[in-house]
Amino acid sequence: MASSITLPTDLPRVRNIHFRSFSSCSFAKFRQNHSSFETPVCFENNAIIFVKQGSKIMHHAKSRFVIAQNEALFLKSGTYTLSNIAIENGAYEAWLFFFDNAFLLSLMQKYHALRKKPHQRISAPALKSNHAQLLDILQSFAPYFEDNTQIFEPLVELKFEEIFAFLLLHSDEFSAFVDEIFSALSLKYMDLFSHCDEAFLSVAQMAQYAKSDISSFSKTFKHNFKLSPKQYIDEKRFKKAQHLLINSTQNINEICTTCGFSSPSWFIKRFKNRYGQTPKQFQKTAKI
To answer: How far apart are the first and last CA of the chain?
Structure first.
């Protein structure tokens, strides 16, 4: 069996591939002149595989998918075993489109109104389409594989957005498929922060910890926890301040600095607004 690869991270070391990578998405054209079998591939991001020549066979757990020529497959992140079947003249070609998780979440939220209520749960790891208009959109990326083509990331993001919106509008199954992805990504955020002991000083630090951009992270965090990241940081700071007021010998100024508040006066004012007592009053009451 061939050695495993991780995509899109390993794109630079894959032979016979031409790719473009951006902060929110990546796309690649892979071509070879022979068939290859049972290559383990870990997809870090959700992706679309569009087979231009030949066919592809994919295995994931107990699922098996065959992507014929001029078919596209939207697949969830995960580990798959891939076989590329060349056509009679020995050619195989596929285009790959990778959606960064934060970017995909932002599209899910932006097009929430287009997401139809699913009639049934889609638990499959992938969803196939051969809709002619979708294939036209995918093939419109052809000029971007040319070395002399200047590419602007906002334009690429708009084209990825076009793919996503088209699938939502033309496939009830895709809406259900997206809901499954959204639930999985939401659980990831819940797992990251529900029992997190990190002392974050800013929303930017939290977004970096979640490997997301600030805007998408803030929306997703608020959706899951029903409070903003800033409110989460304040909650953690005040709980730490309460603990130190009761269990340490630090004075108010020291506790203010330890917990990351900008000034003692601001800390005292916010503490009183929150708990109805000044930090000193709280300390005396708690130690009685």
So the answer is: 69
The residues with which 99 forms a beta bridge, in sequence order, are 25, 46
pLDDT in tens, 11-37: 999 989 999 988 789 999 999 999 999
State how many domains the chain has: 2
At 192, the amino acid letter reads L
Residue 3 has what pLDDT? 76
| CATH number, position 19 | 2.60.120.280
Task: List alpha helices for the chain, DSSP H.
Answer: 101-110, 132-139, 153-170, 172-194, 203-209, 214-225, 229-247, 252-258, 264-275, 279-286
**Are 44 and 157 in a shared domain?**
yes
Q: How do strand 5-7 and strand 36-43 relate by DSSP bridges?
A: parallel
- Same domain? 203 vs 241: yes
CATH number of the domain at 204, please.
Answer: 1.10.10.60
Per-residue pLDDT for 234 more than 80?
A: yes
Q: Which of 193, 224, 221, 168 is CA-nearest to residue 213?
A: 221
